[in-house]
Design goal:
The chain is α+β, with helices and mostly antiparallel strands. The protein has one domain: Beta-grasp domain (Ubiquitin-like (UB roll)), CATH 3.10.20. It is built from 2 helices and 5 strands. The protein has a 5-stranded mixed beta sheet with strand order 2-1-5-3-4. A hairpin with a 2-residue loop joins strand 3 and strand 4. The termini are far apart. The relative contact order is 0.29.
Length: 83
């Protein structure tokens, strides 16, 4: 079963897409390992590791690192601004 990765707001522009769907690579069991894998695939993904980026795992805010598994939906959210 694949994992769904969503890029929100400015990260969508930076990544050039709103979402990836991929099989979870063998040995990747947490969000930090997945972020490192995404960085290996695309240099733009280095923005995902910034400390200000929130992690949303299956519709709930999650700490880093968080365990992940096939079937999960993981969203990377930059800080919201405006008023």
């Amino acid at each position: 079963m694949p994992i769904t990765i969503r890029y929100m707001a400015a990260l969508r522009d930076r990544m050039g897409k709103s979402e990836d769907v991929m099989e979870l690579p063998s040995g990747i069991t947490d969000s930090d390992a997945l972020t490192a894998h995404l960085q290996d695939l695309d240099p733009a993904a280095h923005a995902l590791a910034h400390p200000s980026i929130r992690l949303i795992l299956n519709d709930a805010i999650a700490p880093r690192p968080s365990p992940i598994r096939s079937g999960d939906t993981l969203a990377f959210c930059p800080p919201f601004t405006g008023g």
